[in-house]
Design goal:
The structure holds 2 protein chains of 2 kinds.
Chain A lengths: L16 H13 L1 H23 L47 H37 L1 H15 L3 H12 L3 H27 L3 H8 L4 H12 L2 H23 L11 H10 L6 H28 L6
Helix pairs in contact in A: 1-11, 2-3, 2-11, 3-4, 3-6, 3-8, 3-9, 3-11, 4-6, 5-6, 6-9, 9-10, 9-11, 10-11
Chain B lengths: L2 H29 L17 H10 L10 H5 L9 H13 L17 H36 L4 H15 L2 H15 L35 H7 L3 H38 L2 H8 L4 H19 L1 H18 L5 H10 L3 H29 L6
Classes of the chains: A mainly alpha, B mainly alpha.
Chain lengths: 311, 372
């Protein structure tokens, strides 16, 4: 009797090459997806090259004589007591520490994107591993894991994150941890439902018949075959995570109000809402554009890869 | 399994989730923070160390054999009551409605957490209910139009609005609304809306002297109706306009998407084709036949929407300076008022879990295909 090697088992693919090509064709046809792609890639490029565009130490130069001024002649805010300042033109005005808002936004983009990517990556990792194990093992283990996720789904993520930040301390690492802790149950549920349907397929049975262990089947075969909806969801969630993170820093959960971070700048701006509206206007607009970009991209990808929505 | 068996099972699960959450929140606030933080809201400036030690012992945080308050602050092992014993004492107190004092109003040791929380709660409840009403009123028609005019102009508009609502930072939207309505419209002498506060003052379209009402419920709009003071009601409603719209935008985005996709799915089914081939009008097919089935999946996310609205209320109350529970929670977070945070988290969780329970039971009742 010849011995079958495990690699000889044909892997089930979610789509053939032609299918993927067709999907890319559909993606290219959709103007909103292209728009989202441009924004998200553009913001990532800005994030990577932020240190080259702007001197990364500008945020430390606090000059209170230049605070809250607007000397860009192209727009007049119509505010009576707007401060004027001599010297170089600040394209988007200055903040309450006398730093240029445009520079602060450019320096803030990499920080927000980094936190968002870290949050999504760690939430996806935890969700995929535990969701996969829960669905594949079943029984008591599944019940325990699901009941733990119920606890996290019972309170608004932002509230849990606030409690964690209050107790563990205000730093960006803890902020990342706090938001990731509120985010993983989504992926766990998604992964569980994927694995539940995937594990009934005949190839899993043939793997088992050949003596492959459960962890090998799960992590080498079942999870790689059922992971693509997770990636779609992750793209969709980057925007949401950026919003949550900036809302938390906006509420003051930040190591220092001086750090150029988009929510931090908005926090500065809400105090001077009627004397320096540009501050919150442009920092919030940046958050909106980045978040919208990732949402458009994720939405388009989901529509194309979800066979029920494709016609 | 019958429906009532399912209901009992779900009820047990709900109690279990709340119990586990109380363990988590207790561990976070009492286990990770130094034990003195449990005393903070009781200590008055005139207390000496002996009084503080007696206080700690009466609260069940310090043991009766603890020699001095100094040893307690240094967390000597013979001074600290084991955490699980503290938990059960706390649970007993909490279940009998005793949540301790709060640090919030500024005078320690006088105001109970329960009173302070529930005097502020009606504002948040009113805001969240207004947000939920707006969400339902706007998102469902948008979702339907988007599905029935798939890939045409109304669909694009509704998708952009839903995605935009999903992507816009709420604090930014709220600030922008304030700038627009207060800074510019007011300068031009138009009927502007109030920038902040729960009752409109300093506003263009509200009544200058609405008078007083009895604080029956604590929620201004409801109090205005109940006391028959329509001027007061109008002012409260005007003051609620900007905050509730700002609160609703995210959930509008979420719900529009769900309604759109489930409506599209239903419209592709055979029974819709049958209804059309019978010669029924489009309106009848959509609203009579398709809508009922399409709204079922939308109902399942109401727990998520409640969480979105209650969580978003924190930001909205800060931006619009509303005197609700979320606004106070930020103060509580800054002064480490653990009693208040515990009550806030557990009441919010109770609301969300109870919403989920009711919705799931309704769902099971309405959809006979559901196997539970």
């Amino acid at each position: 009797m010849t011995e079958l090697k495990e690699t000889e088992v044909p892997k089930q693919k979610s789509g053939s090459v032609a299918d993927v090509k067709y999907a890319f064709h559909l993606l290219k046809e959709n103007p909103l997806v292209i728009f989202g792609f441009i924004i998200s890639v553009g913001s990532m490029l800005v994030a990577v090259f932020a240190g080259f565009i702007v001197d990364p130490n500008t945020w430390k130069h606090v000059d209170l004589s230049m605070r809250l001024c607007w000397n860009n002649p192209t727009f007049n805010w119509g505010i009576v007591n707007v401060f004027n300042c001599a010297g170089p033109v600040y394209a988007l005005g200055t903040d309450s520490y006398g730093r240029g808002v445009l520079e602060m936004i450019i320096l803030g983009i990499p920080l927000d994107l980094q936190i968002a990517l870290e949050v999504v990556a760690s939430a996806v990792f935890v969700g995929v591993v535990f969701g996969g194990v829960a669905a594949y093992a079943g029984g008591v283990l599944e019940e325990i894991i699901l009941r733990i996720t119920d606890i996290f789904l019972a309170i608004p993520g932002i509230l849990l994150a606030i409690v964690l930040l209050v107790i563990l301390g205000r730093s960006f690492n803890i902020l990342t941890l706090a938001v990731a802790i509120t985010w993983w149950p989504t992926y766990l549920r998604l992964m569980r439902s994927q694995v539940l349907s995937e594990k009934e397929k005949p190839y899993v049975e043939s793997l088992r018949a050949m003596g492959a262990g459960p962890s090998r089947i799960l992590f080498r075969h079942v999870i790689p075959n059922s992971i693509y909806p997770i990636f779609v969801q992750a793209t969709l969630d980057i925007g949401g995570v950026i919003l949550t993170v900036s809302a938390l820093t906006f509420l003051g959960f930040t190591p220092s109000p001086l750090i150029p971070e988009l929510g931090n700048l908005a926090n500065d701006g809400i105090r001077y809402l009627f004397t320096a509206p540009w501050l919150i206007l442009f920092s919030g607009l940046t958050i909106l554009i980045i978040s919208l970009g990732f949402n458009l991209l994720g939405d388009g990808i989901r529509d194309v890869f979800d066979p029920r929505l494709r016609r | 399994m019958r429906l009532y068996e399912y209901a009992i099972r779900r009820l047990v699960l709900m109690v279990f989730v709340l119990f586990m959450l109380s363990l988590v929140i207790f561990y976070l606030t009492r286990g990770l923070l130094p034990p003195t933080s449990a005393l903070a809201s009781y200590i008055t400036p005139r207390m000496n160390d002996t009084a503080k030690l007696t206080l700690a012992q009466s609260l069940g945080v310090a043991t009766s054999s603890c020699p001095s308050f100094n040893d307690f602050t240094r967390e000597m092992p013979e001074c600290i009551v084991p955490l699980w014993e503290q938990y059960f004492l706390w649970l007993k107190n909490v279940l009998s409605g005793n949540w301790g004092y709060t640090l919030l109003p500024g005078i320690t040791g006088t105001e109970t957490t329960w009173d302070v929380f529930f005097s502020r709660f009606p504002y948040t409840a009113e805001l969240a209910i207004a947000g939920a009403a707006l969400t339902i009123l706007i998102a469902i028609p948008f979702g339907i139009v988007s599905a029935t005019h798939n890939n045409k102009f109304p669909d694009h508009v509704s998708r952009v609005i839903s995605l935009g609502g999903y992507s816009v930072p709420q604090f930014w939207f709220g600030a922008l609304a304030q700038i627009l309505f207060v800074l510019y419209i007011r300068v031009n002498g138009l009927g502007f809306l109030p920038a902040n506060g729960a009752l409109a003052t300093n506003c263009g379209i509200c009544i200058s002297n609405p008078g007083q009402v009895f604080a029956l419920t604590g929620a201004p709009v409801l109090d205005g109706i109940l006391s028959g003071n329509l001027a007061y009601f109008w002012d409260a409603l005007v003051a609620l306009a900007l905050p509730s719209v700002t609160l609703a935008i995210t959930s509008i985005g979420a719900l529009t998407r769900i309604v759109r996709s489930s409506m599209m799915e239903v419209l592709r089914q055979d029974y819709i084709l049958l209804a059309r081939s019978k010669g029924l009008k489009d309106r009848v097919v959509i609203y009579r036949h398709a809508l009922r089935n399409a709204l079922l999946p939308a109902i399942t996310i109401s727990g998520l929407l409640t969480a979105l609205l209650l969580g978003g209320a924190i930001v909205i109350e800060i931006v619009f300076s509303l005197p609700g529970v979320g606004n106070a929670s930020l103060v509580a977070a800054n002064v480490l008022d653990i009693n208040y945070l515990e009550l806030y988290v557990l009441v919010t969780a109770l609301i969300i879990v109870a919403t989920n329970l009711v919705v799931d039971l309704l769902y099971a009742k309405m959809d006979p295909r559901i196997r539970y």
